[in-house]
Design brief:
single chain, 255 residues, alpha/beta, TIM Barrel, eight-stranded parallel beta sheet, 9 helices, globular, binds zinc ion
């Protein structure tokens, strides 16, 4: 078996030993991880994890929740040329928590879309309660999306998924798909099999049967099982498909 966690936060302060987690991943056939940065410091920390652990890659980016701070978005450029930096992210729009400034968020998002294009990297998108503005921003910047974009922890509608698919989107699902009332099955089935990835968003979003506990990247196995079941595939075939998708999307992995 070859499992991949395409989105985790090894940099989270809840984790005292990334080395132990990475080891446990190997024991459970979770063979690749992408450690996701969400501000400058976590992006640097994630790059260090990627340097230490062969099977860890990383992304660098500034999350929309950082937009009210005085962030120098261009500082992350120095990380984007690292050979293990496989994407710009997680970036996007998040209208969930007040206070927020929509135009500042959009500006931060767009600057990083341009940057991803300049450095030939795909984008990992965080979108929360901002579905329409997010789609509008992507459409307006379509010419900068040639390296692809991934809707991480996809939580929007099935109809909206088709709009993102038209722009070439990939989609990742995490522990939420395993929740009894998540009602994600029809949405997952709408995603072509060559556009799907699995993730944990660890330490958040533990899947059933571990819901409510600290999540770990190796729990991605539960997500694979659920997604495979929704598609009516056996887990091995599904994992092979996800692996192919992963290498196609994160094209710097394995170079
Ligand atoms: Zn995340």
């Amino acid at each position: 078996m070859f499992y991949i966690d395409s989105h985790c936060h090894l940099t989270d302060s809840r984790y005292t030993s990334p080395a132990e987690i990475v080891n446990e991943c190997k024991n459970k056939n979770v063979n690749l991880l992408v450690d996701i940065g969400w501000n400058f410091d976590t992006s640097v920390f994630a790059s260090q994890n990627a340097k230490h652990f062969e099977n860890v890659y990383f992304s660098a980016g500034i999350h929309p929740s950082e937009s009210l701070k005085s962030v120098d978005v261009f500082k992350i450029q120095g990380l984007l040329t690292d050979k293990k930096c496989v994407a710009v992210g997680e970036i996007g729009l998040d209208y969930h928590y007040e206070p927020l400034d929509k135009s500042l968020q959009k500006q931060l998002f767009e600057e990083q879309i341009f940057m991803a294009d300049k450095f030939n990297l795909p984008i990992i998108i965080h979108s929360r309660d901002a579905s329409n503005d997010l789609l509008t921003t992507l459409k307006a910047n379509k010419k900068y999306l040639n390296n692809g974009f991934l809707m991480h922890c996809y939580s929007e509608s099935r109809e909206q998924a088709f709009n993102y698919l038209d722009l070439g989107a990939y989609f990742a699902f995490g522990g939420v798909v395993t929740f009894k009332n998540s009602k994600k099955d029809d949405i997952v089935r709408a995603i072509p099999k060559d556009r799907i990835l699995a993730e944990t968003d660890a330490p958040y979003m533990s899947p059933v049967p571990l819901r409510g506990t600290t999540n770990y990247p190796y729990n991605v196995v539960f997500v694979y099982e659920k997604l495979a079941q929704i598609y009516g595939l056996n887990v091995e075939d599904f994992a092979q498909t996800v692996k192919e998708n992963f290498y196609r999307f994160f094209k710097k992995v394995g170079l």
